[in-house]
Every structure is written in C-alpha cells, then in structure tokens.
Design goal:
The structure is a single chain. This protein is mostly helical. The protein has two domains: 223 residues, Growth Hormone, Chain: A (Up-down Bundle); 138 residues, no CATH class. 81% of the residues lie in helices and 2% in strands. The protein is built from 13 helices and two strands, in the order ααααββααααααααα. Strands 1-2 form a two-stranded antiparallel ribbon. A hairpin with a 5-residue loop joins strand 1 and strand 2. The longest helix is centred in the middle third of the chain and has 60 residues. It is globular. It starts with a helix and ends with a helix. The C terminus is likely disordered.
C-alpha cells in the first residue's frame, strides 16, 4: 500500500507544477512577461505551501492521536478540493486582464515615462493572493497529511519515508513542469492543460479514497516495516511524544530551514534572470530551469534519506550540505560571469550544459537538508 501512496503523491506533484507553470504564463501575459511576474507567482505559491503545511500539520498531529486511519481519507478530500479549485481558477483566469485594468493606474516618473503606481502593484499582489493562496495552502497540507499517515509514531524510519515521499512528489513535479511547456500547452492550450492537472488531482483523490476504504475494511493493513531487533535510536524514538515540545533544537533547525529556503528561492530567481540572458527570452526558459532544479531536489532528498540511515550527527551533516550549496552556487556564479554570457553560450553548447549541471548540483545540496532536519529533530527534540 505504501507504494500506491507514493504513486498518488507523484500525481499530486505532477498536477501542482502544471498549475504553477500555467499560472506563470497567464500572469506574465497580463502583468508583463518579466521576472517580476514569475517572482509574484512563486512567492504566493511558496507562501501557500508553507502556511498550509504548518496549519494542516498541527491539525494532523491531533487528528492522528484520535483517529489515525482518517488522515488518508482527508488527503483524498484535499486532492478533490484542489482539483475543484483548479477548475474554478481556470475559468477565472481569462478575466484576469480586465480585473487588472480596473485596479491599475499610472504615474509619470522623473524621466517622463509612465509607470505603474505603488497602489497598482499592491493590487496585483492582492489579486494573486486571493486567487492562488487557498489552493496552494491545500497543496501544502497534503504533504503533512501523508507524512503523519506514513510515519505515525515510528520515528526511526520517518526520515527515510519522508525522503521518498518528497522525492517522488518532486519527480512528478519535474515531469509536469517539462511536459507543460513542451507538450501540453502546444497540444491542448492553457485551458486544456489545466484540465490535465485537474484529472491528476482526481486520480490522487480516488486512489486515496480507495485505499482508505480498504484499510477501514481490514483488507489492507496500515503501513508498517518489517520487525527487527530494535536499535538505540528506535528505543529513543519510542520515548518521543507525538508532538515534540518546543526546544532550542527545534528553533535553530527551523531558522536554518527558513534561511536556506530564502537562499534557494532567491537563487532560483537569479538563475531565471541569468538563463533569460543566456538562452533568450522565450517562455520555456522558466519550465526548463525549474525542471532541472526539481530533478536536483528530488535526487538530493532521496540521497539525504539514504545517507541518514547510515550516518550519525545529522545536525553536523546539515551544516556540511549547506556548505556545499554555498560553494557550488559561488562556483556557478563565477562560471556565469566569464566573458560575454550570450556569445559564449551560442558559441559553445557545452557552456549551457555546464551551467545546467551546476544548477542541478545546487538543487541536490539544498534538498538534502530536509531528511537531515527531520532526523535531528526526531532524536533531539
């Protein structure tokens, strides 16, 4: 059953990135095809994921204590709601231009050019939040629901199950990202592409309902690992409460994750700017770059989960991984600054490949932090 849950979350990641790439396209058409439109969509998307993960995660802990078997069905309801909201957004997006025109005003700058007023920028941000925040909050909640369902109280293998869950979700996201711009939009258009995303949400919801029904009837047992001789970490994990109390370890780890997330998203926008210069201003640059980053994140998540089954002192390894992220980022920026970027790219295709490889390496290092943090908190908090 665990493998089927992974497949459902793969479909969830696939649909999520189809939505995001389409939204970047639509908001770019209305607000201008610049890095600012992409930044706005990414910011609201990540904000919704974070808030949803925290709010739903807190609720899922309490729900698991009362009815542990209900979380999988709740995940199904979330996926169904995401599909319905995605359908509603696809109907509303064609009217985005008219709404934007109503709230936009222009001012003359010192150079004599007319520019958008500050109030117009704020109004555009508010439109993006109203449209995208609810659905992205539900997306963020799906991860924490499945984490609590798969991990339960078995914290000894929690880091590995989280790594696999996050890895397969990211793999689906990478596939959805590359398919959207290179296959789905050319074949089905923006509206039809969003219907594909809705379909995958429905597949995930139907699968979750089916598995939940099988569990309720006793046909399929809850996820469990094979019994073996308990290790020291297993004995320690059994003494950890369902919701670890606040501690300095939790606070410092949360701060480290917040700062690394800030750096990772900031670098994504910088890379987007760089590759727009490198490859030209065409729409597929965003999806191409994001696909490479997501592949790196998924591979890094699996690698981190695998290594943490064999190493100790996860907090120290988290520091090492962050150091590799810094070093690879600086080296990539140094390579990017050599000579004329665009001329070098078109004169030497290997230059483009080298830059993409560096982005993948940075993504891998960034994603390896998540299993490390889970392992550290499960043993120390």
């Amino acid at each position: 059953m665990t493998g089927l849950i992974y497949f459902l979350f793969f479909c969830s990641g696939l649909s999520g990135l189809i939505y995001q790439v389409v939204w970047v396209r639509v908001f770019g058409n209305v607000f201008g095809n610049t890095v600012y439109s992409a930044s706005l969509v990414i910011a609201v998307f990540m904000l919704g994921l974070g808030v949803g993960s925290w709010v739903v995660g807190t609720w899922a802990d309490r729900r698991y204590a009362a009815r542990p078997e209900s979380l999988l069905k709740t995940y199904g309801y979330f996926e169904l709601a995401i599909g319905l909201m995605g359908l509603a957004i696809s109907v509303l997006l064609p009217h985005l231009g008219r709404v934007s025109a109503l709230v936009s005003s222009y001012l003359r700058d010192p150079g004599g050019w007319y520019v958008l007023s500050t109030a117009s920028y704020l109004a555009r941000g508010a439109i993006a939040i109203v449209l995208l925040a609810p659905i992205t909050m539900l997306m963020g909640g799906t991860l924490t629901l499945l984490i609590r369902h798969l991990v339960g109280r078995d914290l000894e293998v929690g880091h590995w199950r989280i790594a696999v869950l996050y890895g397969v979700n990211t793999a689906g996201a990478a596939l959805g990202c590359i398919l959207t711009d290179f296959l789905l939009v050319p074949a089905a258009g923006l509206q039809g592409t969003q219907m594909f995303a809705v379909f995958f949400n429905i597949v995930a919801a139907a699968g979750a309902f089916g598995l939940a029904g099988a569990m309720a009837s006793g046909a399929t047992p809850a996820p469990a690992r094979k019994k073996k001789k308990p290790s020291i970490s297993a004995v320690t994990a059994q003494t950890i409460p369902l919701s670890p109390p606040a501690s300095s370890g939790l606070a410092w780890t949360s701060l480290a994750l917040a700062l690394s997330g800030f750096a990772a998203m900031g670098m994504e926008i910088l890379w987007f700017r760089h590759f727009t210069l490198l490859l030209g201003e065409f729409r597929a640059v965003f999806s191409l770059l994001l696909t490479v980053i997501l592949i790196g994140i998924g591979a890094g998540s699996l690698a981190g989960g695998f290594l943490l089954r064999r190493i100790a002192r996860p907090a120290q390894w988290l520091m090492v991984v962050q150091g590799f992220f810094v070093a690879s980022t600086l080296l990539g920026l140094a390579v990017a600054s050599l000579g004329n970027i665009k001329d070098a790219a078109f004169a030497n295709p290997a230059y483009r490949a080298l830059n993409l490889i560096w982005r993948e390496r940075c993504g891998s290092c960034g994603s390896m932090r998540d299993p490390s943090c889970w392992r550290f908190l499960s043993l120390r908090c």
